[in-house]
Amino acid sequence: MYKSVIRPFFFLFDPEKIHHFTFSLIKILSKIPGIPFIFRSLFTISDKKLERQLFGLTFKNPVGLAAGFDKNAVLYNELANFGFGFIEIGTVTPKAQAGNPKKRIFRLKADNGLINRMGFNNNGIEAAIEKLKQNKGHVLIGGNIGKNTTTMPADYTKDYVACFEALHPYVDYFVLNVSCPNVGSHAKLTDKDYLIALITTIQKANATHTNQKPVLLKIAPDLNPVQLDEIIEIVAETKIDGIIASNTSTIREGLKASSQQLEAIGNGGLSGKPIKDRSTAVIKYLADKSNKAFPIIGVGGIHTAEDALEKLEAGADLVQIYTGFIYEGPSLAKKINKAILGRN
């Protein structure tokens, strides 16, 4: 029903507007007695065989919702009813910011993809905390953190530390987002020496807490082997807890969308089916080259259960969905978990 009726209707409207409409709809429906139970009955699988122990955390299943979907932590309690083992909020920045000018998200229907240049639009760290105080404890929460657009390069690390310290009591793990193509000074954020300094600073802050939280690094799918080798070296040197592979892509090769359409859209990060193989290749390279020395969360182009299994077989320990959730509908997490059980 979703792909034949609901999605065609939703796709008649602007992606960002329909995103907010869907949030409001789920919020309203979830307040009706019995509806959350119906959602759980339709979209979740509970089985001990799906549990994963990672970073000192117990994930009730290995399928998560990637950052960017619930930026401001306004719907994670309701989204927990759709079969996710963990939900990543953010990217959150210290101060609220509007992001890039609209229109800033575009569907590539023929490619089952999206291009976005949102620019870390979010309500800021304090607003996120107020929402996270309402956590009902149904699902593990990750905090994806970044810097404000107006922050000067010398203060980038201060932004990450500010988010880390403020969010620390409210999330189960952290993700340092240094790979989004829609923010300024991308070069510094991916510089090896800066990354080591950033991670080291965050880890020093983490060490001051009695309940230390896992910290992961989110990388781009466009890194070449030399850059991926540097990532492996960074993990070895800093002992960061893991890698999320991968973020959106700036590469436009092999798309069914016309050059005219792409030119009209302009810059932005590509997600969905078109980056599936690139993301999987990054996962496999990191896992094989490091001899599986660190955990990997695989994300990028997961639209089917087979796509998720491919990520896991390449070396991912957990997977996340985003664009696939939009294109395939609310049953995707359940389908993936059912396939994982079938593989066990």
From TrEMBL:
Listed GO MF terms: dihydroorotate dehydrogenase (quinone) activity
- Which residues are listed for substrate binding in this entry? 71, 116-120, 177, 182, 247-248
Main localization is membrane
UniProt-listed Enzyme Commission number(s)? 1.3.5.2
Binding-site list for FMN: 67-71, 91, 144, 177, 218, 246, 272, 301, 322-323
Biological processes per GO annotation = 'de novo' pyrimidine nucleobase biosynthetic process; 'de novo' UMP biosynthetic process
Which cofactor is recorded for it?
A: FMN
GO CC entries: cytoplasm; plasma membrane
The entry sums up its family as follows:
Belongs to the dihydroorotate dehydrogenase family. Type 2 subfamily.
Q: How does it sit in the membrane?
A: Peripheral membrane protein
Please give the name of this protein.
Dihydroorotate dehydrogenase (quinone)
Record key words, sorted: Cell membrane, Flavoprotein, FMN, Membrane, Oxidoreductase, Pyrimidine biosynthesis
Q: Where is the active site?
A: 180
Gene designation: pyrD
Q: How does it assemble?
A: Monomer.
Q: Which reaction does it catalyse?
A: (S)-dihydroorotate + a quinone = orotate + a quinol
- List the PANTHER family hit by this protein, alphabetically: DIHYDROOROTATE DEHYDROGENASE (QUINONE), MITOCHONDRIAL, DIHYDROOROTATE DEHYDROGENASE (QUINONE), MITOCHONDRIAL-RELATED
From which source organism is this entry?
A: Lutibacter maritimus
Localization, UniProt: Cell membrane; Membrane
Q: What does this protein do?
A: Catalyzes the conversion of dihydroorotate to orotate with quinone as electron acceptor.
- Which class of enzymes does this protein belong to? oxidoreductase
